[in-house]
Amino acid sequence: MSTAITTDLAAYAVQARFADLPDAVRREARRSLLNIVGCVLGGARHAGVDAAHAALAPFTGAASATLMGRGDKSDPLHAALINGLASSVYSFDDTHEQAVVHPSGPVAAPALALAEIHPVSGETLLLAFALGVELECRLCKSLTVPPAKGSLAWSGTGITGPLGAAIAAGRMLGFDMPTMRTAMGIALAQSAGFRAMHGSLCTPMMAAQASQTGLRAAFLARAGFTSSPAALEGRYGYLSVFSESPDLDALAGDLGSRWEILRNTYKPYPCGIVIHPIIDACLHLRADHAADAIAAVDIQASPGTMALCNNRNPKDELQAHVSLHHWAAVCFIRGTARIEDMDTETAVRDPALMAFQDKVQATLDPALSSDAAVVTIRMHDGSHHTCRIDHCIGSAQRPMTDDELAAKFAAMATPVLGAGRTQGLLELCRGVETLADAGDLARAAA
Amino acid sequence: MSTAITTDLAAYAVQARFADLPDAVRREARRSLLNIVGCVLGGARHAGVDAAHAALAPFTGAASATLMGRGDKSDPLHAALINGLASSVYSFDDTHEQAVVHPSGPVAAPALALAEIHPVSGETLLLAFALGVELECRLCKSLTVPPAKGSLAWSGTGITGPLGAAIAAGRMLGFDMPTMRTAMGIALAQSAGFRAMHGSLCTPMMAAQASQTGLRAAFLARAGFTSSPAALEGRYGYLSVFSESPDLDALAGDLGSRWEILRNTYKPYPCGIVIHPIIDACLHLRADHAADAIAAVDIQASPGTMALCNNRNPKDELQAHVSLHHWAAVCFIRGTARIEDMDTETAVRDPALMAFQDKVQATLDPALSSDAAVVTIRMHDGSHHTCRIDHCIGSAQRPMTDDELAAKFAAMATPVLGAGRTQGLLELCRGVETLADAGDLARAAA
């Protein structure tokens, strides 16, 4: 590994061939793409997506790219923004096992929009998507995952998504190394986002912004715009501002042989992923114990869970995304953990759910990993019952099966497309690398 | 001062009245606006602006806002981007005396674009502009100027410009406090940029990006998008990621009585401001000493100068912006320091200028402020001569006069507009608060 990391990564991104992707990588790329297309459709009609589209549509250009699930088209930069926003608005997307990044939205949204104005094969799309996700995950890992040291305050998706988007777009546009490196630099220089925004629409906007920023960076680079050739490693560069001590090997070591995309995981529940082991445990306990028999729910939670989701009494859906108390209440009262269980009117303000949260208490167990939790219910009769989850459903150790992913996809897409078109789109995603024109995928999700 | 700083600043931004602005503040706001309009026109036909426009024009919306100096219109978000880029592309804009931020471009570009689709009076425009610049400068000061501690690696303009833009746009749109606070939060969450980009078009793009980001944030807030109400001070918020130890009093103390806009300064030379005292000294020495009699040029430079501009042998115009060696050579060989003195072909690659740089050596003097320098020339005859500049022309202690600003404006605008229209636009800027429709100003700069 040289010290010219930006150049090394750009060279890799333009040289890697589809034939070089191991079967497992192709499979995980397909699963990631399928999952995120479902998430875009599931979020397409969210009020926050409506608001962003209404705000910006007056300033958009010629309609050439699909606003998936909205029955409309726009210019590809706006489509990247809106589809990126929809992909993330329910926090139902995907997460790298180690780095807290939701990688697929900021790569898929611009890649699919670009495919409609710049036709490429399905194989090219899937390769570009896999490379974008791979380098986005590597970058995020290099910032904060030990031995790296960095601040959890940054939004991993916000600050690494633009790189993934630029790489996917640049690869689809057939960039040479210098142009790819320029696009990467432009995207890195515009990377932004911090976690104080959790609970507001600015959090899914980080995926949206990343989608658009990276695609725009590719358009700028193609037109001759310039950037630093050492955007990552240069003095006063990206790595210096976003990490106290970046892990360069995690970023640029073993390119083509170590695959971070294999560590991508998919959310079975539409909320902050660090709440998921608590949901697993609560649903398990609820099977045998009625909510009204419970006096208290004591939760031992991981450091990540406590830092991000120890938020009692959310006021609306977006705050509920990151409230472990809300979801514990949902599990015990309703026995479910679905999108409709965080609707502001019918769930977040449901008096029964609000009241139950008073029984829920979370404490830190520093030894727990972020996919683990221990939930103990103390009953009115004096008994207590404990469920320990070491690896929640959807984690790298207990990955969602293809069938579970298909069911999740169908649950999100069917209300928008109907059963027949949903099944057709599912097949397109599963066979994406056989498509002659990858734009068919976005158009089928109109 | 409360701990709800985002709320306090939003409340101030919506409540301040034009009648509350002291005369000196109105005057400095007019001078800032006049200077930056000149800079936009001076940069309007730069190849980097052409490249950005060519890259993105295919995706722009209905033409309603002027691309100043380009004889064209576009949608207001693209106009904010392109005019913001032009304002900064020659590094000829303005700088706060203490915080290294170039405040006016990211505020004027969106404000003028917005004025064309949302008519306001000149008084409203000038008030909105003054408030945007003021809060942008306060924010930048709060991050790095002692007693604050923060990293110089961040681009002050990139990370604080979006706030200034959002505040100006929100004020012009007549926002109430909560909507203004939301717009500020969206803009803060999308703030980005670091200094490794110096020497590339990504540096002026930071002003451009800030212009567009802030205006877009206002449009999103108007449509009901949401943000954290504590974007600045919240846990994992803006202040926590951009400063090790922010100075909250610099940010939010004495609103309406202390005015940072009075510390704005204007560049007499089109290059990094920390080179300016060196140029003053070199031009002074050059008046009495011919270049070919000089054996060596020894420069004692401030920490800021050494950190940002100790760059010998730039390769192109953008690198020349931040090369003290280039400008020392220009001063001694040509006796000038103009835009044409950094043209890539006729100046940066001029063999005489390149050769002279070998004689130039800079060393750090930690005691020098960034507007100070000491230049000693050692002659072939063994004699030596020293010029010490304590405060360079254009610094807060030696501000450019109104006549000097008018001459700078004319030098930039005349090649684009001709002498007659240049004079007319100058008068519009000088009397901006008397305009019934502030959009006249942008249209007069078409």
What does this 3D model show about the protein?
- The structure is a homodimer of 446-residue chains.
- Chain A is of the alpha+beta class and 446 residues long.
- Chain A has two domains: 5-268 and 398-444, 2-methylcitrate dehydratase PrpD, CATH 1.10.4100.10; 273-389, 60s Ribosomal Protein L30, Chain: A (2-Layer Sandwich), CATH 3.30.1330.
- In chain A, 52% of the residues lie in helices and 9% in strands.
- The first copy, chain A, has 19 helices and eight strands.
- In chain A, the strands form three sheets. The first copy, chain A, has a four-stranded mixed beta sheet. In chain A, strands 1-2 form a two-stranded antiparallel ribbon. In chain A, strands 3-4 form a two-stranded antiparallel ribbon.
- In chain A, helix 1 (5-15) crosses helix 8 (177-189), helix 2 (23-43) crosses helix 18 and helix 4 runs antiparallel to helix 5 (105-117).
- The radius of gyration of chain A is 21 Å and the shape is globular.
- The mean pLDDT of chain A is 96.
- At the A-B interface, helix 3, helix 4, helix 8, helix 9 and helix 10 of A face helix 3, helix 4, helix 8, helix 9 and helix 10 of B.
